[in-house]
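quick one: pyridoxal-5'-phosphate bound model?
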Amino acid sequence: MSWTSPKYNAHFASAIAGLRKDGRYRDFAVLERLCGEFPYALMHGADGVTKKVTVWCSNDYLGLGQHPAILKAMHAAIDTWGAGSGGTRNISGNSLIHTELERALATWHGKEAALLFGSGYTANAAALAALICLLPGCLVFSDAKNHASMIAGMRGHAGKQIFAHNDLTDLERKLAAADPSAPKIIACESVYSMDGTIAPLREIEALAQKYGALTYLDEVHAVGLYGQTGAGVAERDGATFDVIEGTFGKAFGVAGGYIAGSAALIDAVRSHAGGFIFTTSMPPALAAGALASLNVIKTAHDLRARQQRQARRLRDKLKAAGLPVLDSASHIVPLMIGGAHCCKGVSDWLFENAAIYVQPINFPTVAVGEERLRLTPSPLHTDAMIDELVGALDYLWTQQHLPRQMVA
Ligand code: PLP
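yep, here:
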């Protein structure tokens, strides 16, 4: 049996006590997804009782995690190729399905090549670190609201500059003040996962051209959801970024990540990114599921339209009830609460009284004081479910005298 010294255990316990005191201790909801019944799931309460709940915070944005064609492709892949990939891409873990998926992703994004990673997090952290290493003396201009995975890729880099969120004036000020001969990367997201804001991609692209910067775009919350074929906001807005980064873990309904770009850039990252080189490649069944999902996504116009309709409907109803919803332009509907204890209290009350599951979002995912419920309506959330959620929140706000002001 392993043994950890009481001295160390006391240290860990006091770190946890601090989180509990601030209301930031993370309880993971134990959820059993029910294939064919999304957005319903079975939730195991702390008392051991199981309850069927409506899930309002899933990133399976289109419900593709239960799509028959995707499940069939994954079953078939397991039966054909077995469970794991057998190695890294370099040492016995490369297969036809990996290369086929990369080709399909590259074509979809209008790029020469693509590269798979174990997750979107690893794709960002590994690819950005590799690009920084490949471009000595490079300056990285990073949006203030960029995801932790992008920040991980730039950690410790002396040439990192943070520009105010979606602020073109601040970005240009920083670009203009930089050494014109230094290599530059502008890194941003298209849809920001916590506020639901969308970046002005065409304008960022124009600044990049003016100042000779490479552009890196995280489309994790946009692939599958925006653009004629679902390739993201860059497709929708007609913007061209040098690197597109995406995930199979959200709208694709599976798991894994990737980047797409020029053949030379992808080849260089393939040969320099530790998070690509030194890790077992994605299981063939995941690659097969992602490829099947991509084929569904390309023509999923009705699902995309209905998701946008339900997001608009939910936002409008929350606004009409005077609840503090952020007026975002995307499918992400943040309900601002402020205060970790209150946020958790609302989440617990919804579970106990309305069989609704929505996870409280606390620091460090959002800033202290900006705690919220992040609502993600899908095409499978019905009008009745929206009415039920808004009704429950409205009742609770009245009962607890919670502030109703709109957040700008
Ligand atoms: N980028 C953004 C903006 C994200 O929100 C996330 C995950 O939440 C990731 C990257 C990581 O993607 P994955 O879940 O595939 O690791």
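The longest strand covers residues 50-55.
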